[in-house]
Design goal:
The chain is an alpha+beta fold. It has a single domain (6-159), classed as NADH Oxidase (3-Layer(aba) Sandwich). The protein is built from 6 helices and 4 strands. The protein has helices at residues 6-12, 26-37, 56-73, 100-117, 129-133, 138-144; strands at 48-53, 87-94, 121-125, 150-159. A 4-stranded antiparallel sheet has the order 1-2-4-3. The mean pLDDT is 95.
Length: 180
């Protein structure tokens, strides 16, 4: 398997919204999960957990419940929010630890860059966060093993792209300030 260097993977990575149905290999999944596991965390707490969902029927049912929630609450409707990616990795962690959300963001970016580096595509998913915090998702939190003391933070859909890598948007000016 060819592997890109980290900087090239960061610069090349785009959100992919169309995937081939084939599942990740064990080797591919191990690389992505190693990138998760070795992500830095505040105070080396390592409080973020990953839940790997690869059951296609469960993913469809989860998406249908999310869609119903979004429609009922006036939220932005994302039909098939995971874009039929064969793997969905949900992150959760200690709800009381002040850096869980930040540590989850670091971990999900690590996984997305790792996926790109081995030729896979991904899309980082924050759209289900409100659903996962609502009582409407209680059955899903139970099925995923998310404890009452934990909060869902973010997810990553990952698989083999079934589309061209989209071009990146032009970079906005003025985002960097130098103080020398």
């Amino acid at each position: 398997m060819e592997v890109k260097n980290a900087v090239q993977a960061i610069l090349d990575r785009r959100s992919i919204r169309k995937y081939k149905p084939e599942q990740l290999t064990d080797e591919q999944l191990k690389i992505i999960l190693d990138a998760f596991d070795w992500a830095p965390t505040a105070r080396n707490a390592q409080e973020v957990r990953a839940i790997v969902l690869q059951d296609a029927e469960m993913m469809k049912a989860f998406a249908a419940d999310f869609e119903a929630f979004a429609a009922a609450t006036g939220g932005k409707l994302f039909k098939n929010f995971y874009f039929d990616a064969p793997t969905l990795i949900l992150l959760c962690g200690d709800a009381e630890f002040p850096y869980t959300a930040i540590d989850s963001g670091i971990a999900v970016e690590n996984m997305a860059v790792a996926a790109d580096s081995i030729g896979l595509g991904s899309v980082i998913l924050g759209c289900i966060r409100q659903f996962m915090a609502d009582e409407a998702s209680a059955q899903w939190r139970a099925k995923f093993g998310i404890k009452d003391s934990e909060m869902f933070t973010i997810a990553l859909a990952v698989g083999t792209p079934d589309c061209e890598n989209p071009k990146g948007a032009a970079r906005k000016e003025g985002k960097i300030t130098f103080i020398k």
